[in-house]
TrEMBL record:
Protein name: HTH tetR-type domain-containing protein
Any one GO MF annotation of this record: DNA-binding transcription factor activity
DNA-binding region: 57-76
Lineage: Bacteria, Bacillati, Actinomycetota, Actinomycetes, Kitasatosporales
Domain (HTH tetR-type): residue spans on this chain: 34-94
UniProt entry tagged with the keyword Lipid metabolism: no
Amino acid sequence: MSGIVESAGTEVARQLPDEREGMGLPETPTGQNRTVRSALLDAALEVFTERGYTDAGLTEIATRSGIPVGSLFQHYGGKRGLYLALWEEFREEQERRTAATLTAERNRGVDDPIALFVAGARAYLEGVWDNRRLGMLLVEDDAPAGFDALRRQWDRAWVRRNARLLEVDEKRRAGRVRVRVITTVIGGAARELGDCGDETEAREIVDEVCGILIHLSAPPS
């Protein structure tokens, strides 16, 4: 999962330039049929959620999408490509959401690093709730080979971005540990949101976690 970011868009491409090639992430050619891609991703999410990644079948995904298996391979290269495309879609949407929140807060005159960080964390967690089916799929252990390495790589970038937002000196071990703990709290809260029964419970969790983050984010006296 992605974290609190300073800017939306393609930051992953700038920070992890070899990610697509190394992990087999599908390219998005100009002019590609977005309707076909959307139908395939929607069907893949349904089947992955119901059966898990390992037991999901490409034939079932193609059938539910109404798209031939051949087109599935053409657009995504197989099951792994579908999963990674879902991950990228979720991550980029979360980045857009948190970046827009940070921009709005700064435009209101907010410049306190902790206030900005907590506002971004709230936006991120609200996004997890809004997209909880996809979010929960992506934190499960049942994933393509090599995905854990990709997720860890992104988690490290997430910690670095949070450190910049909180203006923490990453050269100091205490600062690094504090930001890593805070980032872990957000990740744990995201998993809890997936098990919420309704929006009221989800909002209670988000409020509680933001209170914890305010406390944890304060620099030591």
